[in-house]
Amino acid sequence: MSTTLSQPSSRVSAALQVEDLCVRYGGVQAVRSVSFTVEPGEAVGIIGANGAGKTSTLRALMGLVPRTASTLSFGESDLRRTPARNMVRHGIGYVPEGRHVFSGLSVEKNLMLGAYSKGWGRSQKLELDGIYEQFPVLGEMRQRPAGALSGGQQQMLAIGRALMSKPDLILLDEPSMGLSPKLVDDTLAILLNLCGAGLSLLLVEQNAELAFGATSRCLVVESGEVVTEGSTKELRADPQVRRSYLGI
């Protein structure tokens, strides 16, 4: 796998700052006063069991569900009133749970849709070439319908589509879901490659081993709250985390 990726666009000094993020579905509070920061070039993980509030946290950050926060910013941009469709203009890419590729469209058209906010020109063509270099299988299958790809290939396509906008921060929701152990390893290699290119990552994962392997710091979420956080080294050594998330 090639390690060629374009560098983040213009916001390499931007940090994601989140304070008192809350999400409520009717009478149920799914996210409770979650606060954290993702520094420039940092990879941060959010781990927890099913229903812990991990996906709701990402969807709230993207503006896909109603939320409140005392601070929700990326660099100089206040995102509290920014609609989901405009997040990409602030340098934020998103790979949703379940990938959500456009099954009836070709691989190439799926990737081109990732650059919609930039228009189409020489820069986007170079970016597309870079995606094919990074993920050769996508280049080989560029004219095939996205629905014909395997789960792992669709995950590559979803990540490639997010990269087409040249983001500075990528939010990834359960990238290992439904993948074989071999493809989980491939996904880890992709995430480490993204970090090596200077991108910031916020990774939601139920697979704690993948999250620990791809990030330098993690939050542990239960019932919508951050119950502990620390470096991956610290969390790997935590007896409760080892029992609950590593099966040790």
UniProtKB/TrEMBL annotation:
Source domain of life: Bacteria
This protein's UniProt keywords: Amino-acid transport, ATP-binding, Nucleotide-binding, Transport
InterPro entries according to UniProt: AAA+_ATPase (IPR003593), ABC_transporter-like_ATP-bd (IPR003439), ABC_transporter-like_CS (IPR017871), BCAA_Transport_ATP-bd_LivF (IPR052156), P-loop_NTPase (IPR027417)
Molecular function terms, GO-annotated: ATP binding; ATP hydrolysis activity; branched-chain amino acid transmembrane transporter activity
Signal peptide interval: none
Any one biological process term the GO annotation gives: L-amino acid transport
Gene3D superfamilies: P-loop containing nucleotide triphosphate hydrolases
Domain ABC transporter: 16-248
UniProt record similarity statement: Belongs to the ABC transporter superfamily.
Name under which the protein is recorded: Amino acid/amide ABC transporter ATP-binding protein 2, HAAT family
